[in-house]
Specification:
Layout lengths: L2 E8 L4 E2 L4 E7 L5 E8 L19 E8 H7 L21 E8 L5 E8 L4 E3 L4
Enzyme class: hydrolase
Pfam family, one: Transthyretin
Protein name: 5-hydroxyisourate hydrolase
């Protein structure tokens, strides 16, 4: 059976993004979102277990929500940067990063990396 994983990297500081709240939803044919799972990224910016276990893994449209504003609100850096707040925190332009994606192979590993800064993000289908 397939499984779903993610990895969050803080590109501002060049580190794994630990402590990011992550929520996973599945879209129904009627257009509703069903909450499936919530977790927090570990010290390596990953989840301790797959986001979807074998019993829940099925084809469909899903959304991952990453609470990036909360992460950067508690994140500080010692590097000088013109946009740092006076308390050393990184101001955020982004609030919640939402990635909507489809699963069409129940046997595959779907990996969704998120490279993020307070001002921009990038993602792709990883391996």
């Amino acid at each position: 059976m397939g499984y779903l994983t993610t990895h969050i990297l803080d590109t501002t500081q060049g580190v794994a993004a630990a402590g990011v709240h992550i929520h996973l939803y599945k879209h129904t044919d009627e257009g509703r979102r069903i909450h499936l799972h919530s977790t927090i990224s570990n010290h390596d910016g990953r989840c301790d277990a797959p986001l979807l276990d074998v019993d829940q893994f099925s084809c469909g449209i899903y959304e991952l929500e990453f609470a990036i504003d909360d992460y950067f609100a508690q994140s500080t850096t010692n590097e000088p940067h013109e946009s740092l707040s006076q308390d050393g925190t990184l101001p955020t332009f982004l609030n919640t990063v939402v990635i909507r994606f489809g699963i069409n192979d129940e046997q595959a590993h779907y990996h969704i990396p998120l490279l993020v800064s307070p001002f921009a993000y990038s993602t792709y289908r990883g391996s």
